[in-house]
Amino acid sequence: MQNQTNYYSLPAVHASVTPLTVVYGLAAPLVSVTVVGYVVLRRRLSKEPLQLLRRDLGRTRPPRIRLSRLSFAARFRVRHALREYRTYLLMLCAMLLSVLLLVLSLGMRASIAAYADDVRSGIPFGYMYVLAGDLPSSQHPDDLLDDLPDDAELASVRSVSLSRPLSRSSGAGPDNVSLIGVSEGSRYFTQDLQVPAADHVYVSEPMALRHSLSAGDQLTLTTADGQGHDVVVEGTVSYPEPMVFSPRASANELLGEQPDSANAVLTSAEDDALARQAVTTVSRSGIIKGVDTMASLMATTVYTVLAASVALLVLVMLLLMRMAIDKETYSISLMRTLGYSEREVGSFYLDSYLLLAVVALLVGVPLSVAVMRPVWQVLIASVSFSIEFVLPWGSVAVIAALVITTCAAARLAAGRHLSRVEATEILKDRE
């Protein structure tokens, strides 16, 4: 929280703890544990004493399936999975949740990095100087360029509020964006902005993503004086910031101004004279700095989610594997008595979880990406632009490596726990 409030001009935020919060934080875990413990213990203690002594807790019998063509090891694993399907389903759900959090953290990092790269390569001008009023008009307004730098270009820039009827966007209300009228033959915005009428505009790709816009959709642009102008989306422009584009003459006609009006100058280098006259200066370096700052602020969240997902994966796999061993103590002791080595017994009971991890990766990664794409737009709804959620193959490889490594580490730890099961356990149970 401190990192976020230090970046913006906000008053000091002081954390306070109310008595209700303390009571809820202490009582909720205790009540949950009490209810779960009561239900589980009541069900277990309802068994007869002899069943408890023999650890006969009413296990379900697997369905009778003929697996004669499989080897003994394969038959054993299949029947064990069918008998303990609840444990396998619980572990699969936990793995899928961990994969979802891994996709969120690494996808968040990759998406912000991709957006930062788009900003660095997609801002065509070096500086945009927005003046307080229109530049002096004449019969040939482009003659004003004689008094400007060689790389200067005139434009009209107006702040408008964008909204759409029956909005499907993830934002809660209208967005404040800029309507820029681009000069014909622009050296900075090279895309051909052909419109059939003044009420047709182009929108930047992030704005189209945020508001689910496509060609033919209707928008309402409201100026600072409250006048609304209904427009139709003609297409999109590859530009990383939220912006509405139109030819300069069409934009001025839409707002009821002279066709050759211009109140902004685009340059590739800084100009001190224009900077003194401008009321707003937008620089490419400033935009890049803002994006880099946003990326650094999000780093803490990314690493927190990443650490939480790895910790959840480790704890769930280790605890469930240990629970499976404790539940199968009798069978493990019997197999060791029959002469099976510790390695063979471990492969019978624990190697199936590696296959489960592979299934969780094959199912969880594409499913998580499909879920996170709309969810990500909701998470960033508070910002005025939209970032596409991406997960590059490098991040997929990192997720796979984390899951497989965690599974291998849990398998090693569970194998040590299995080695502590003595062959005499079956004799104790028989006594």
UniProtKB/TrEMBL annotation:
Compartments reported by the entry: Cell membrane
All copies of domain ABC3 transporter permease C-terminal, residue ranges: 305-422
Entry's transmembrane regions: 20-41, 87-108, 302-325, 346-369, 389-410
Pfam families: FtsX (PF02687)
Transmembrane helix found in the keyword field: yes
Membrane topology value: Multi-pass membrane protein
InterPro entries per the UniProt record, alphabetical: ABC3_permease_C, Membrane_comp_ABC_pdt
Keywords: Cell membrane, Membrane, Transmembrane, Transmembrane helix
Database matches in PANTHER family: BLL1001 PROTEIN, MEMBRANE COMPONENT OF PREDICTED ABC SUPERFAMILY METABOLITE UPTAKE TRANSPORTER
Name listed for the protein in its UniProt record: ABC transporter permease
Organism: Actinomyces lilanjuaniae
